[in-house]
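Lecture notes, structural biology module. Today: joint structure prediction for complexes of two components.
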Amino acid sequence: NAGVMQNPRHLVRRRGQEARLRCSPMKGHSHVYWYRQLPEEGLKFMVYLQKENIIDESGMPKERFSAEFPKEGPSILRIQQVVRGDSAAYFCASSPSVGDTQYFGPGTRLTVL
Amino acid sequence: AQSVTQLDSQVPVFEEAPVELRCNYSSSVSVYLFWYVQYPNQGLQLLLKYLSGSTLVKGINGFEAEFNKSQTSFHLRKPSVHISDTAEYFCAVSEWGNNNDMRFGAGTRLTVKP
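The predicted structure, tokenised, for the full assembly:
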């Protein structure tokens, strides 16, 4: 059973461009979570999604950030008009049900030049 | 909302020495507690978790942690560390019935020296 997959592993963007981060949950997992890790800091919760629904986006910045988890395909975290402060590692986690253990992907390291 | 404090940002130890990484949490309801390890340039790997039952939890790689409700702590311990244990360790807490909002501590960097 493959683990949580994220791609790309490394992403470089110039200021003002768009960044798209993809996450494929573990097989059988329908709950996806996105976290951001800034340098020298812990993980900060961003958003929790189930298939086709955003359940909790209390940790998402109000502008430029959006997330989706379509019926088919991976979950996407989209950052529009990136700024240098968006440089961070973005981790996705999945679980089979709410209240269950979250399993993490290897992360996408976004660098904004 | 729940929160986590990891009291030590860095812990240097010599190989084969015992180690304890401290974690305290705050919550008004019952919680689940987790320890994750992050090796350089990798994602987080679950070390162990406390959901209910026995307060002493054993995890992978010889680690264990003890849930102490009165002290609101969940310290991680290993009796003898190896060089390969050098990594960042994160304590996390989520509240019963609200596992989508898992809060992480800032992390403790364990460095094992020969």
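Point to remember: The radius of gyration of chain A is 13 Å.
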